[in-house]
Amino acid sequence: MASAQQVLLPQAFCSLLALPEFSSSPSALYPMLAFTSAALLLLALVSWHCIVYPKVFSPLRHLPEPAGGSYLMGHFYRLIREPLGQPIREWINKVPHKGLIRYLDYFNTERIAVVGSKALAEVLVHKADDFMKPPQFVRVIGNVIGVGLFLAEGEEHK
Fold it and tell me: Residues 6 or more apart from 95 whose CB is under 8 A from it?
């Protein structure tokens, strides 16, 4: 049996929100509270992933980054609106960098453009096994040109 305090708390909450239909039955309030809690949790997770982490806590946040971009969608709109590779070519010329440029894709997903000759040699030759190609890239490009020297990794590449 619920104590008087447990019953009065949901009723007081409903009365404050002017929801008289829930104040007579506290058990009817629980689904609404569960939905509200789930929505707040989802909002917190999206805020962390899309705004707080990339802007405040990411270890990549100190890399050079192009100006502009949406607060939530980063440089995504520019990347899809302009011809393929055009924004990155422009950033190579305008953003001071030492071989790496960080930009934000949809929902502020961090991307790194490797643009310097020393950085490219490091990624493609010296430490090629440490840098895996994205699976989506391998699948799409592999269907077009096949998995050859360009897409092979690890022992298959050697």
Answer: 64, 65, 66, 101
- N residues, the chain: 158
Give the H/E segment covering residue 91. helix 86-94
CA 121-122-123 angle, to 5 degrees, is 95
Q: DSSP 3-state helix, strand, coil percentages of the chain (rounded to 5)?
A: 60, 10, 35
Look at residue 12 in the predicted model and tell me its pLDDT.
57
Q: Which two tokens mark 67?
A: 């100006």
Q: Report how far residue 122's alpha carbon sits from residue 99's, in angstroms, rounded to the nearest whole number.
A: 10
Please, which residues bridge with residue 112 across strands?
A: 102
Q: Each residue of 61-95: pLDDT tens digit? A: 999 999 988 888 999 999 999 998 899 999 999 99
Angstrom distance (rounded) from CA 107 to CA 87 = 18
Question: Mean pLDDT of all residues in the chain?
Answer: 81
Amino acid at the residue 90: E
The strand pairing partners of 101, in sequence order, are 113
Q: For the purposes of burial, counting CB atoms within 10 Å of the CB of 13, is it exposed (0-12), middle (13-18) or buried (19 or more)?
A: middle
pLDDT at 124 over 90: no
